[in-house]
Design a protein that fits this description.
alpha/beta, single chain, L-phenylalanine transmembrane transporter activity, Rossmann fold, 10 helices, 6-stranded mixed beta sheet, AAA+_ATPase
């Protein structure tokens, strides 16, 4: 598979999918991120955990360019993107989901996905209706199958359950050959059954697609990640494997002592 070949090439060169070098983000006197150094390998699945206000969502905003960094550098696949706007980072293979669903509720599930696929192609400004063999339409249908929404593809998004809307957001993030996806609390508000399905979807993603997941449900996060970064007060507190983090007494005290995770 082309994606797998690309992953092998990146891994053989030792190039990271993401590098943060002394990244800080200040809001006036408030220091939301403080000298964060972080590397994520190509194809790696990383969880970022921490209590309320730890800096997790601010970290995502710095990576995507939604908030410019106050200090430090951000690199994607070896390229310095610190001063690039969000859309340029998207063109380089970065994708993101948000805590609050950002969907076209009046359009069908398939139309939402088609627009996401078409939006990263050269024909994104075309007003013509797609033909049945349109490549973007075919990709949209395959993505909906991957996230188990093919049976509701003709429904308006407004008629989907909350869990199905979160599944749709994953399909949108998969459009346009992503190389690194940032998932911002995808399990928030889901039922136990929906969380199990979410885990299945994330575990079945192609291996060349790496991701970082902020998740308040540790059971979900530790099942879908191969490495974990703990944050506290805008800094990296500890890193390790899911097993190391789960059994770490300091992590347990910090995490459980704050009643779990939330908007970081």
């Amino acid at each position: 598979m082309p994606g797998t070949d690309a992953l092998s090439r990146l891994q053989s060169t030792g190039q990271y999918a993401l590098e943060l070098e002394a990244v800080s983000r200040h809001f006036g006197a408030l220091v939301a991120l403080a000298d964060v150094n972080l590397t994520v390998k190509a194809g790696e699945r990383r969880a970022v955990l921490g209590s309320n206000g730890a800096g997790k969502t601010t970290l995502f905003n710095a990576i995507t360019g939604d908030f410019p960094t106050t200090t430090g550098r951000v690199r994607l696949f070896g390229e310095d993107v610190t001063d690039m706007p969000s859309h340029e980072r998207i063109r380089r293979g970065l994708r993101r989901t948000y805590q609050i669903s950002l969907l076209f509720n009046g359009l069908s599930v398939l139309d939402n996905t088609f627009l996401a696929c078409r939006g990263v192609t050269r024909g994104r400004f075309s007003l013509r209706r797609p033909k049945r063999d349109d490549s973007s339409l075919e990709l949209a249908e395959s993505l909906l199958e991957a996230v188990h929404l093919d049976d509701v593809k003709d429904k308006p998004v407004a008629e989907l359950s909350y869990g199905q809307q979160r599944q749709l957001e994953i399909a949108l993030a998969l459009s346009g050959a992503p190389r690194l996806i940032l998932f911002d609390e995808p399990a928030a508000g889901l039922s136990p059954t929906e969380r199990t399905l979410l885990v299945d979807i994330l575990q079945s993603l192609p291996e060349h697609i790496g991701y970082i997941i902020i998740e308040h449900d540790m059971d979900v996060a530790l099942k879908v990640a191969e490495s974990v970064t703990m944050m506290h007060n805008g800094r990296i507190f500890k890193e390790g494997t899911p097993e190391e983090i789960e059994n770490d007494s300091e992590v347990q005290e910090l995490y459980l002592g704050h009643g779990g995770d939330g908007h970081g």
